[in-house]
Amino acid sequence: MEHNGRRTFLGVCLGGLAAAVAAVTVWPVYRYLAPRSTRATAARVDIPEKEIPEGEAKFFEFNGASAVLVRKRGGGLIALSAVCTHLGCIVQWEKDKQDFLCPCHGGHYTPDGVVTAGPPPKPLAKLPFSVANGVITVG
Amino acid sequence: MNLLGSLLVLLLPLAVLWPLASFAAEPQEIVCIQCHGAMPGKIGEPVKLWKGSIHAENGIACNACHGGDPKDAANAMSPARGFLGAPKEAAIPAFCGRCHVGVLKDYLASAHGKALGKGGPTCVTCHSNHLVVKASLDIINEKRCSQCHSYERAKVIRAAMQETEAMIVAIDKRIAAYKVQGTDTESLEKGLFAVRNRFHTLFHNVDVGMVKKESAGIQADLKKIQDQLAALDDSRQKRKIAGAVVVSAMLLLALFAHLLRKTFD
Amino acid sequence: MALFKRLIDWIDVRIGAREIVAKELTGYLLPRNINAWYSMGSILLFIFAMQVVTGILLLIYYVPDADKAFKSVSFIMNEVPFGWLIRTCHAIGSNMMVLVLFLHMLSVLFMNSYKSPREFNWLTGFILFTLVQGISLTGYLLPWSQLSFWATTVATNSANAIPVAGPYLVEFLRGSKLVGPPTLGRFFALHVALIPLGMAAVVGAHLFFLQRTGVSTPPFGQKETANQWQGDGYRYESHPGGIPFFPNYALEDLRSIFIYLACFLAVVFFAPNLFFTSDSFLPANPLQTPAHIKPEWYFLANYQTLKIFPNEFIGLSVQGAAMTFLALLPFIDRTRERHPLKRPLFMICAVGGILLWVGLSVWGHYS
């Protein structure tokens, strides 16, 4: 009986400590695998104004995702997220039609990001930007 | 039967084995050294001196300063191939200053530089020529300075720089110690390099007021590097504590397993 | 508890789990005089599993490209959270694997467990030994440091001593005239795919042979120490009245593994640079050979052997002969007696062999 009590006690000690060690081991592995903060891509992106002529679009990486700057016919400038709101493909600029096409399922957006056709549920997200001394700063 | 081989029982080789490292990738010797290295006296001396210099350490050979063609023995010293020979005394600062641009500027602006050609010191007066070594505060000493003037002023400058110099040397040692352990010290090294350069320009100013004014800023920058090193020390310390905990946990687990095993006898 | 029992019942009626447990664990009896040396195999299995896990984790950030490999390892060591821990565990684990493997082989040697009918166990073990050396050697190159580069140059260069085919063989091993990006590609494939898969397969065979022949009885503390095997027919060596594998010996295995882990982690945390020289933290430079390139400690004896013979081919042949002898040991040593103290000649040769190996290693280290 005493033997059994001792056995149970030691079993609990061994199992408990082993479980604790296993739990502690998970932490470094989780931290090792956890996504790293996206400081690689700056939260602000500078683009010279002359890189975007009228009617053209420029794609760039912003905050770890794709974004696009468009200069509409007539000169209006706009910065949008280039990620389609349907399933996350990257939209393409159709210069001849002056609109965005998502190649995955045929979503269409105006240069302002408003959905004109296809499955996207929401317009493309607008990004804040400012223009100073011929340089466009997004973010 | 198993005797002979048993001798070799633990001489365990592998399909791939290790021979002598019989190849050394020594760089090809340039013709300047081939000839001058073997010459006696004054004409061969520079090669011996150069071999102990910081230039040799960094792969800066004869032709980097003296010009000429180090690959063509016949025309090695032809002016047509850019051979310059040895500069006249007054031309020495310009000679060295082709590479050490910033130092040349500081020197020319200093009392030393202004006395060039009027008995003032040139680069080699303090640094020597072929056996030039990494500069340190030791260059400022009574024997050298009092060749031209009294040591008093130099002593004051040296004292003002002493503390910062000691900091730089100490930080350099600590960075080197981390480097050989596999720590990525690149940004630390670059930081120290920049600060050291700033500090070294003071050497050539020979202006006590300037030295005192600048030293505070330089020491503040050095402090930043020291803080980074302190953070590294701290993380290494934490690793040791964590290590002590996990090693103890393993020993405790071994003890529990052992005791539990004994209950099954 | 009742729920747990019902779950076990549910499984049991389907696959007969209790029968397996009774036969392979609680009913698997081991000799009463079994000792701690018998748990070296379990430690090795544990180390192998750990190398696989840490190796897969390293693959996440490691880039097998000559231009990027060194930087990626430095990134793992300095930037990735706990990357230093995983990389250090993998690197030190490999050295520990070789060390424990030596102990495993020594215990089998001194307990004369390699004798009939266990030739297959010895042979598969010997293959594992060469595979461990191969995986260590190929893994050594991957960080693309000065040490990696030049140690691999020296190692592959030794094949030059082989007559006629030597120079081509060297080029074939390297994938190019000199060690370079092609070498990294093939060593990487060997290190992360071919050799580990081969090892897993041979470990399977090794365990299968153990299961078929049964565990050998240690010769110590026995009156009758001669080999009882007659060779007249297959017979599983059972140990009636022995101790059950589970829980008795499993706990001893566990104890050995925890003691191993304590030693291993002590090195990882307190002497992480025990097996590294400063050359392992400099990126590979094909134009500059570092001053004192030495192989890893377990290759030092081989290295020194090649140096003491005037001709590299002789040195290579001697090692090949020693290796072959070792591989064929159970076929050469056919005496029945298994107690080492009753075999003075064997003891002299075995201890002499070990001292020779240690001596050559020390000599190689200081030469």
TrEMBL record, chain A:
GO CC annotation terms, alphabetical: membrane
Task: Name what cofactor the protein needs.
Answer: [2Fe-2S] cluster
Per the record's keyword annotation, is Iron included, yes or no?
yes
Gene3D superfamilies recorded for this chain? Rieske [2Fe-2S] iron-sulphur domain
* Keywords assigned by UniProt, alphabetized: 2Fe-2S, Disulfide bond, Iron, Iron-sulfur, Metal-binding
Any Pfam family hit: Rieske
Spell out the PROSITE patterns in the cross-references.
Answer: RIESKE, TAT
How is this protein named in the record?
Answer: Rieske 2Fe-2S domain-containing protein
Q: What is the lineage of its organism?
A: Bacteria, Pseudomonadati, Thermodesulfobacteriota, Desulfuromonadia, Geobacterales
Q: Extract the InterPro entries matched here.
A: Rieske_2Fe-2S, Rieske_2Fe-2S_sf, Rieske_Fe-S_prot, Rieske_Fe-S_prot_C, TAT_signal
| Superkingdom assignment | Bacteria
Q: Domain Rieske spans what residues?
A: 44-138
MF (Gene Ontology): 2 iron, 2 sulfur cluster binding; metal ion binding
UniProtKB/TrEMBL annotation, chain B:
Its keywords, alphabetically, are: Membrane, Signal, Transmembrane, Transmembrane helix
| Top-rank taxon | Bacteria
Which parts of the chain are coiled coil? none
The transmembrane residues are: 241-260
Q: Which SUPFAM superfamilies match?
A: Multiheme cytochromes
Q: In the record, which residues are listed under signal peptide?
A: 1-24
Q: Which GO terms describe its molecular function?
A: oxidoreductase activity
Asked if the Swiss-Prot or TrEMBL record annotates the protein with the keyword Transmembrane, the reply is yes
Q: What is this protein called?
A: Cytochrome c3 family protein
TrEMBL record, chain C:
What molecular functions are annotated in GO for this chain? electron transfer activity; metal ion binding; oxidoreductase activity
Predominant cellular place of this UniProt entry's protein:
membrane
InterPro entries associated with the record: Cyt_b/b6_C (IPR005798), Cyt_b/b6_C_sf (IPR036150), Cyt_b/b6_N (IPR005797), Cytb/b6-like_sf (IPR027387), Cytochrome_b_N_euk/bac (IPR048259), Di-haem_cyt_TM (IPR016174)
Q: Name one GO cellular component term.
A: membrane
Entry keywords, A to Z: Electron transport, Heme, Iron, Membrane, Metal-binding, Respiratory chain, Transmembrane, Transmembrane helix, Transport
Question: Please, which domain of life does this record's source organism belong to?
Answer: Bacteria
**What is the membrane topology here?**
Multi-pass membrane protein
Give GO terms for biological process. respiratory electron transport chain
Tell me where in or outside the cell this protein is found. Answer: Membrane
Which residue ranges does the record assign to the Cytochrome b/b6 N-terminal region profile domain? Answer: 7-219
**Sequence intervals crossing the membrane:** 42-64, 84-110, 122-142, 188-210, 257-276, 313-332, 344-366
Domain Cytochrome b/b6 C-terminal region profile, which positions?
Answer: 235-367
Indicate what this protein is called per its UniProt record: Cytochrome bc complex cytochrome b subunit
Q: Organism, per UniProt? A: Oryzomonas japonica
